[in-house]
């Protein structure tokens, strides 16, 4: 099948449709608006629903309603909008409702700007809503992955009855690349728990309230078990020229694309760098990082992010002092250049 | 649909016989306080659902507040929602399941304070749901704090000196507000103080549900209900207070009833065939029948283009065309609009990368080719071009030519030339002709001519685009 040149945001819409999603609830915000616009154009054409909600809060709760009935449903927003959705996300996680939430991240805090930043890492990966929940978080770095991981997100959401987030910065959302579209999904898992307005599902209840402390604790323990299984089975990570690397670069999303260029350039000069790119931010690729942290020839890890150092904490937890973990971050929507990244690595090499 | 009237003395089937979800020893009693209206309203709703024979397809959204546990009692599908969000949850549910009967049940804090926007918007969209709004002028579950419906002078735990309009505003009349909206079909306020009023409420409950069964749209029933605990009254005092005080401000009555006038709206859900899903999904791609797609030799080809000028000059489209054509030649490509602080400015630019290898960073910092169509862009990007690279600029719009002597500089009055061809907008296609000529070892001009109408689909421009492309190509042939 031929490839199509398409924006990352548009690839998300197509991925959702191919995954059998027919219900979109959203509220416009730059740089995620193409996802609402594309959904408005296409969802009605395949017998689906597009609804522009009154707010991000409205949208996430519409998602809660639709997900309660077991349909595949999605919303998309960007950082300040995601903050508004956090209450709903906590409820979705508490009620174990499968759905897909797309966060095309931008600069913060507050209104920030519309330039690419990755300051949502802690909010999405560690939980910006209340409670002991986890979201499955996928971080694409190309238009192709915007499609593929959106499809995967629906599958994982259903498999684990858990909200799944596509977290990509504005650059990934806005850039066009060739995309090859997979075949549409035609068979879907059964959802016996869903409230479907039928005689068979009349007994079903979707709820996150559990007043009795013992019962709420049991519910939370059940959730933690589920997260442990996800951590065991669903890690996705790309390693690029890392086998014999002495310096391991680590970054996700658009940063990983920059780091890939850096690896190629530095390798051409004989400098043994390699890249570890987490594709799933939760579950975090701990085992893979752990292997490198134990390798004798590895000198240090160098984490690059478009934030104040959020994922670097996760890397440090795994490395646990065995090797230095160094961090370089840009904020405000600025992308570092290849030269800046290379210079940083060279500086660290001299100092290590 | 006929309503059975012979069941009044038994518990409706829509109520569970024993409230197992409640989990304590009182499995036949609700958790509501003596004198509270929830129990009565619950029963009226349960009876109506049973009598309409819609129990299997009814879904009840329980709110936050005392009635958060409505799912203890209703033997229907149940969803519990966040504070104030029931109308949004109901909207999502109903849109995904248009054949269901969706009942949203909310208290006054839930509906008139935190969820005021959600209820207004759902009502305004005319969501096909039935909303029961229990107004008891106080926050019951949290222990008797002020509600948006608390009366002036009314003492609550957060208005210990009585509600003061200067500080807390006036009690909100939600039925009156909802009734001003165009979409709702039925809005009525009732109360539960005596048999006559309960009978009226019973009728309103049925009318509101029937409106949904008949696909007529959004209906809203407000019920004045006692909260003896919150009001610190006996149940009888509470009833008297509703009669003599509360109902004087929140006057019962029908505020809107256009059920008969409205045509039913029946949403059909189709499942289209996915046979032609490319078409369904509006994915435009180059025809697969074409047999002239060249597969050029790939020997370390790497091109980094920056295309810049004013918004409206078609420069992002130019980048899009080049990326598409290169993709047709089996190259890896990326296209990135100027994204970030410049996005809302008057200038626009895009980065295009073409490579025979996997592309890393999509942003072009040091272009091998710079195409500029205005002066600020030339000033901004000229020095970034790699030594040995190329600058193509519109010499009609830029009066100071590039000063670099280590790059190939091609100036042509592309906009003027396009004007003469009949459309200023085609200047970008003239530049495409130049670029195609420069890269003719890599990009086939025959292929570009064939592909252009498939990439830029607006038929009105097909002819001029071809002409402009040829003009640029010929110009380069002569001058470069």
Order of helices and strands of chain B: HEEHEHHEHHEHEHHEHEHEEEHEEHHHH
Measured by DSSP, the beta-strand proportion of chain B falls in 15-25%
| Named CATH architecture of the largest domain in chain A | 3-Layer(aba) Sandwich
List the total number of helices of chain B: 16
Number of domains of chain A: 2
CATH superfamily of the largest domain in chain B: Thiamin diphosphate (ThDP)-binding fold, Pyr/PP domains
The CATH architecture category of the largest domain in chain B equals 3-Layer(aba) Sandwich
Explain the overall architecture.
The complex is a heterodimer of chains A (352) and B (480). Chain A has 352 residues and is of the alpha/beta class. Chain A folds into two domains: 3-233, Rossmann fold (3-Layer(aba) Sandwich), CATH 3.40.50; 238-351, Rossmann fold, CATH 3.40.50.920. In chain A, 42% of the residues lie in helices and 19% in strands. Chain A has helices at residues 8-18, 33-42, 56-68, 79-94, 121-127, 143-160, 170-174, 213-233, 254-268, 286-294, 311-319, 338-351, and strands at residues 4-7, 23-26, 49-52, 73-77, 99-105, 136-138, 163-169, 176-179, 205-206, 237-240, 247-250, 273-278, 280-282, 300-305, 325-329. A seven-stranded mixed sheet of chain A has the order 3-2-4-5-7-6-13, with helices on both faces. Chain A has a five-stranded mixed sheet with strand order 10-12-11-14-15, sandwiched between helices. Chain A is globular. The mean pLDDT of chain A is 96. By secondary structure, chain B is of the alpha/beta class. Chain B folds into two domains: 20-257, Rossmann fold, CATH 3.40.50.970; 274-479, 3-Layer(aba) Sandwich (Pyruvate-ferredoxin Oxidoreductase, domain 3), CATH 3.40.920. Chain B contains 16 helices and 13 strands. In chain B, the strands form two sheets. Chain B has a seven-stranded mixed sheet with strand order 2-1-3-4-6-5-7, with helices on both faces. Chain B has a six-stranded mixed sheet with strand order 9-10-8-11-12-13, with helices on both faces. In chain B, helix 11 (315-328) runs parallel beside helix 14, helix 11 packs across helix 15 and helix 13 (414-421) packs across helix 16 (462-479). Chain B starts with 37 loop residues before the first helix and ends with a helix. The interface between A and B is large, with 83 and 73 residues.
């Amino acid at each position: 099948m031929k490839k199509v040149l398409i924006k990352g945001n548009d690839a998300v819409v197509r991925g959702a449709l191919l995954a059998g999603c027919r219900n979109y609830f959203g509220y416009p915000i730059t740089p995620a608006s193409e996802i609402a616009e594309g959904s408005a154009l296409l969802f009605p054409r395949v017998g689906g629903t597009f609804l522009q909600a009154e707010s991000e809060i409205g949208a996430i709760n519409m998602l809660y309603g639709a997900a309660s009935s077991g349909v595949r449903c999605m919303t998309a927003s960007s950082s300040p909008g995601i903050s508004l959705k956090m209450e709903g996300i906590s409820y979705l996680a508490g009620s174990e409702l499968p759905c897909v939430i797309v966060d095309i991240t931008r600069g913060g805090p507050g209104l920030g700007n519309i330039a690419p930043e990755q300051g949502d890492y802690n909010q999405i990966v560690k939980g910006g809503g209340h409670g002991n929940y986890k979201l499955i978080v996928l971080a694409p770095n190309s238009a192709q992955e915007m499609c593929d991981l959106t499809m995967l997100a629906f599958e994982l959401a259903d498999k684990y009855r858990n909200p799944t987030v596509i977290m990509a910065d504005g650059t990934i959302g806005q850039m066009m690349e060739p995309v090859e579209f997979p075949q549409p999904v035609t068979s879907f898992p059964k959802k016996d728990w869903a409230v479907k307005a039928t005689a068979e599902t009349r007994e079903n209840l979707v709820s996150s309230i559990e007043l009795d402390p013992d019962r709420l604790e049991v519910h939370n323990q059940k959730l933690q078990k589920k997260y442990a299984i996800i951590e065991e089975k669903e890690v996705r990570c790309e390693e690029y020229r890392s086998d014999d690397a002495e310096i391991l670069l680590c970054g996700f999303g658009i940063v990983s694309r920059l780091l890939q260029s850096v690896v190629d350039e530095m390798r051409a000069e004989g400098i043994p760098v390699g890249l570890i790119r987490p594709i799933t931010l939760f579950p975090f690729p701990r085992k893979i990082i752990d292997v490198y942290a134990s390798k004798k020839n590895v000198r240090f890890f160098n984490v690059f992010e478009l934030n104040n150092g959020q994922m670097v904490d996760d890397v440090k937890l795994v490395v646990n002092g065995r090797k230095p973990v160094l961090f370089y971050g840009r904020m405000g929507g600025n992308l570092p250049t290849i030269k800046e990244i290379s210079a940083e690595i060279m500086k660290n090499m001299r100092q290590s | 649909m006929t309503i059975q009237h012979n069941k009044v003395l038994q518990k409706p089937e829509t109520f569970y016989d024993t409230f197992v979800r409640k989990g304590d020893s009182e499995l036949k009693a609700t958790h509501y306080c003596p004198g509270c209206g929830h129990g009565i309203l619950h029963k009226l709703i349960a009876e109506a659902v049973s009598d309409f024979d819609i129990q299997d397809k009814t879904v009840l959204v329980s709110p936050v507040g005392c009635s958060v546990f409505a799912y203890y009692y209703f033997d229907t599908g149940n969803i519990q929602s966040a504070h104030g969000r029931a109308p949004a949850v109901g909207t999502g549910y109903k849109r995904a399941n248009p054949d269901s009967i969706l009942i949203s049940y909310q208290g006054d804090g839930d509906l008139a304070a935190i969820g005021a926007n959600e209820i207004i918007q759902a009502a305004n969209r005319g969501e096909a749901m039935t909303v029961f709004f229990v107004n008891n002028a106080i926050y019951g579950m949290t222990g008797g704090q002020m509600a948006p419906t608390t009366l002036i002078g009314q003492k609550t735990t957060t208005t210990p000196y009585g509600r003061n309009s200067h500080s807390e505003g006036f009690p909100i009349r939600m039925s009156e507000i909802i009734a001003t909206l165009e979409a709702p079909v039925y809005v009525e306020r009732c109360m539960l103080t005596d048999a006559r009023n309960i009978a009226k409420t019973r009728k309103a409950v049925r009318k509101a549900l029937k409106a949904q069964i008949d696909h007529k749209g959004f209906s809203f029933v407000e019920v004045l209900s006692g909260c003896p605990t919150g009001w610190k009254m006996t149940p009888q005092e509470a009833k008297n207070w509703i009669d003599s005080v509360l109902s004087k401000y929140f006057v019962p009555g029908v505020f809107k009833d256009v059920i008969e006038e409205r045509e039913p709206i029946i949403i059909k859900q189709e499942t289209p065939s996915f046979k032609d899903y490319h078409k369904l999904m509006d994915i435009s791609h180059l025809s697969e029948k074409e047999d002239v797609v060249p597969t050029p030799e790939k020997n370390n080809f790497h091109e980094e283009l920056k295309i810049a000028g004013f918004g409206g000059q078609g420069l992002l489209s130019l980048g899009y065309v080049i990326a598409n054509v290169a993709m047709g030649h089996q190259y890896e490509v990326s296209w990135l609009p100027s994204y970030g602080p410049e996005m809302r400015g008057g200038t626009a630019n895009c980065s295009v990368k073409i490579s025979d290898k996997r592309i890393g960073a999509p942003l072009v910092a040091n272009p091998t080719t710079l195409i500029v169509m205005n002066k600020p862009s030339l000033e901004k990007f000229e020095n970034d071009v790699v030594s040995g690279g190329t600058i193509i600029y519109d010499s009609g719009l830029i009066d100071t030519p590039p000063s670099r002597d280590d790059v190939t500089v091609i100036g042509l009055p592309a906009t003027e030339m396009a004007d003469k061809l009949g459309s200023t907008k085609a200047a970008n296609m003239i530049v495409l002709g130049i670029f195609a000529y420069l890269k003719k070892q890599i990009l086939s001009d025959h292929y570009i001519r064939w592909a252009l109408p498939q990439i830029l689909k607006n038929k009105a421009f097909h002819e001029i685009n071809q002409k402009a492309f040829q003009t640029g190509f010929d110009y380069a042939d002569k001058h470069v």
